[in-house]
Amino acid sequence: MTVPHAAKPKSRLRKRLAAWRSRALGRFGSRSISAVGVLAAGVVLAEVNVLGAQHFLRFDVTSRGLFTLSPATRTLLAAQNEPVEIVSLLTRGDPQAVDADHLLDAYRAESELVQVRHIDPDRDVAAFLALGRKYDIAAEERPNGVVVADASFVVRRGEKTWFIRSDQLVSQDAEGHLQSLLEAKLSEAIARVSERERERVCFVTGHGERSIEDAGPDGLAELGRRLGQSNLEPVRVPLDVPEPTDELDGCGVVAVIAPERPFSEAHARVLEASLSHANLLLLLDPLVDADARLVDAGLGGLSRVLGVGFRPGFVIEHDADRRLPRGIGESFFANVATHPISRGLSTSEARLDARPVIVAAQPLLVAKGSFAVPLLQSSARATLLDDLSRVALANSGTAETFVLAAAVQLPDYRSTVGPSESKHARAVVAGSSNMASSDSFRNPQLYGNRLFVENALSWLAERPSTTRVPERVSGSAPLALSEQSLTDLLLYVVLYMPATAALLGGFVVLRRRSLAARSRREPTS
Amino acid sequence: MRVWVLFVRELRSLWVTPLAWVLLTSFLLLQGGIFYTVTLHFAQMADGSSEAGPLSAYFGQNSLLLAITLLLLCPALTMRTLAEERKTGSIELLLAAPVSSTDIVLGKYLASLLTYALMWTPTVLYAVVLRTVSEVDWHVIASSYLGIALVGASYLALGILCSALGKSQLIALLLSTLVQFGLFVLGIGEYILDPGPLRDLSAHLSLTTLLEETAKGLIDTRRLVLHGSVSVWALFVTSRLVESWRAE
After folding, report:
1. CB A309 within 8 A of CB A367
2. C-alpha span between B98 and A18 (Å, rounded)
3. Minimal Cβ distance to B221: which of A57, A118, A480
4. Do residues A424 and A411 touch, judged by C-beta distance below 8 A?
5. What backbone torsions phi and psi does residue A233 show, to the nearest 5 degrees?
């Protein structure tokens, strides 16, 4: 007597599936079942791709790690706890666009809190205009047809915004090799908008200075508004208070714009002390008293520290190519020297449509051996009017080149009146204040003025990057190809290789045919 | 094992006929011409250095030419896989044999894929030749070929599906070219369409983006998922179709 085997679980399952299948086939037919299967597979295909698009990884296999985010950037992104949006304003025709896309994808792959939006000023006109209106970003078409916006990227988190210009994206080393700063600038922007505190730009008052609350054409309201858009906080700081000593503490940049009265010794010392923790922007018009006499601004001590002083008087330009038609020559286009602050302005090397207009300026005295670098100068045909009672003789006097603005970077500054800590103090000094007026920001013809002031403030507000991102060397080594090499290459790739394939193919086909013919003959023989 | 037998059968049928050799010769002639033109352009550049080298440009920045090559090659390789067998009636013998539909489809697919890979293999010599006169990053070369392999995998799978749908080689060729060209055009929408879901879809499908990324040395899992899933889906649908012939 045999005992039947107990049915195994797998075979029971198979039997059940087979039974279900045959019932379904009988009811719906095999075609219907297949169609459902195909549709279901299509849905799975779509779902897998949607998930794959949301959660993806990127691998950089280049030997130089060109597309690998640096450890500093990865650390920065890992520390983010709120979404940050990066708006790319590069056009498709921009040479940086493709690499920027790859880098932004890498940021997104690294952190889901990074949101990327592309607005092409050429094609997404409405979106660009809306953004441009909000942040006052303009676009222009270059001669090669590429449309370039003021800013290449806008990085924002909540109300905080940081702009990255196109000229900040690459640098050139001494040998002329291009180095991409894209990752460095993007990471710095993310770090800046993540900071709790905004850098304060303190506008000093108490001596008749222009106000950031003055919305008139000569006021500083437009400048204040733009600073706010650039993640800087403009504040008004009056020095005409009983104890002004600590008033400028907490300021990153101290701005003195167009005082109408000289500084007292106490106030001048406060300004000098602020150099220990802040950078200075001094835009001083010539001071004239009630008797129409030129007076000193009272900043002699500060001038000695900076190595730049003021020479009372008005610069009168006599070069017809530079002076404006109105007045006696006190309004004119300045010559621009090459410096990071003059980036984007027309210089002797680069003719661009951006020249600063100077109105009623006093010249600067640059001490020999000082760290001051001239930024703006008059032509060699300018004269100085230092006696207002002799305006009619404005055309006389010795013609010379006057320095109108200078940048100072003191490499190792120690204040004699403030905390004694070494600091790279920076200052931008100019003998005229018209460039900072709201008119300069609103009038397209005064774009050079606006650019100069914005660049100056950017330079002054610059801080060491919080992220150590290495520059990427872009570009490949040149080809060492002679004419003979090219000819050999042509023969190899266009003649030898295809010919080899053709001969090999011919051999295989003929051999097969001969074998087939032989096999047909052999059975009969 | 059955897949292997079918694979060898299909491979032999491809390479003992003039078709594969004609395709290979034409392909190498075309690719050689493109590569030489790209290299000549770089050799003539005034300052001699640029963002990308000739190999990167050949695999990626000239991706329109490369895409067109793929659009011609893949349909031609797959047009006769199933359509010809149905027309001649040899499919009946295959279906009667103790092999599953999946085995049949996989065998043919793997043979087409290997043929595709064998066609691209001689182009490695371009990098070898260029190595004597310029820097060559072999990792990037490998990544470039991965991109080409991904495209080939999905396009060949779609080609086999079209071959199953078409009743003759010509119809299979036309259908396959239409489908693949349609996908290519959809991918170009990335540069044309306004921002939105459709542009995101185009960017996801974009063939030029895939080739450009892999030519630079970037491997993105989105592309792996896309082409892998399309290949699997197309082969699944083909095997269901073949199964339905068996039922008939």
Report:
1. yes
2. 19
3. A57
4. yes
5. -110, 110
Residue B144 to residue B60: CA distance in whole angstroms = 8
Residue-wise pLDDT for A56-87, tens only, equals 888 888 887 777 888 889 888 998 888 999 99
For residue B32, the tally of other CB atoms under 10 A from its CB is 24
Crossing angle of the two packed helices A447-461 and A221-229, in degrees rounded to 10: 50
Residue A438 CB partners (closer than 8 Å, separation 6+): A214, A215, A216, A217, A218, A219, A220, A221, A222, A223
Q: How far is CA A38 from CA A27, A46, B119, B197, B224, in A?
A: 18, 12, 32, 25, 22
Element (H, E) at A238: strand A232-238
Question: H or E segment at A105?
Answer: helix A97-110
Compute the average pLDDT of residues A182-201: 84
Number of H helices, E strands in chain A: 13, 26
Which DSSP string do the residues of A456-478 spell out, in sequence order?
A: HHHHHH----SS--PPEE-SBPP
Gap between the Cα atoms of A219 and A217, Å rounded: 6
What's the CA gap between A345 and B203, in Å, rounded? 38
* Cα B136 from chain centre: 24
pLDDT given at position A150: 67
Percent of chain A with pLDDT over 90: 28
What is the tens place of the pLDDT at every residue in A317-355? Answer: 999 888 888 888 899 999 998 888 887 776 655 555 678
* Cα A495 to Cα B18: distance, rounded to the nearest angstrom: 19
> Does B226 contact A at CB distance below 8 Å?
yes
Rounded to the nearest angstrom, the minimum Cα separation between A464 and chain B is: 29
CA distances from B81 to A480, B8, B135, B167 (A): 46, 13, 41, 11
A212: exposed, middle or buried (Cβ count in 10 Å: 0-12, 13-18, 19+): buried
Edge-first strand listing for the sheet containing A160-165? A114-118, A84-88, A151-157, A160-165
- Cβ contact B135–A476 (<8 Å): yes
User: In this complex, do A508 and B36 lie within 8 Å of one another by their Cβ atoms?
Assistant: no
A52: closest CA of chain B, how far (Å): 6
Q: What separation in angstroms does the CA of A492 have from each of A480, A482, A495, B29, B119? A: 18, 15, 6, 10, 16
For residue A263 the two structure tokens come to 């500084």
DSSP 8-class letter at A93? T
Tokens, residue A466: 């919080």
CA distance A380 to A335: 10
Q: Report the alpha-carbon angle A44-A46-A49, nearest 5.
A: 105
Mapped onto helix, strand or coil, the DSSP state of residue A137 is coil
Length in residues, chain A: 525
pLDDT confidence of A379, banded at 50, 70, 90? very high
Dihedral angle, C-alpha A516, A518, A522, A524, nearest 10 °: 80
CB A58 within 8 A of CB A103: no
Residue type, A100: A
Whether A439 contacts A217, CB under 8 Å:
yes
Residue whose pair of structure tokens reads 């799978």 in the numeric block: B157
Q: Which of B51, B229, B244 sits opposite A49 (nearest CB)?
A: B229
Amino acid A3: pLDDT: 42
Rounded CA-CA distance A9/B150 in Å is 41
CA pair distance A160, A485, nearest whole angstrom: 57
Task: State how far the Cα of A195 lies from the Cα of A183, in Å rounded to an integer.
Answer: 18
Crossing angle of helices B138-165 and B101-120, rounded to 10°: 140
Q: How many angstroms separate the CA of residue B75 from the nearest CA in chain A?
A: 20
User: How many Å is the Cα radius of gyration of chain B?
Assistant: 19
Q: Nearest-CA residue of chain A relative to B240? A: A34
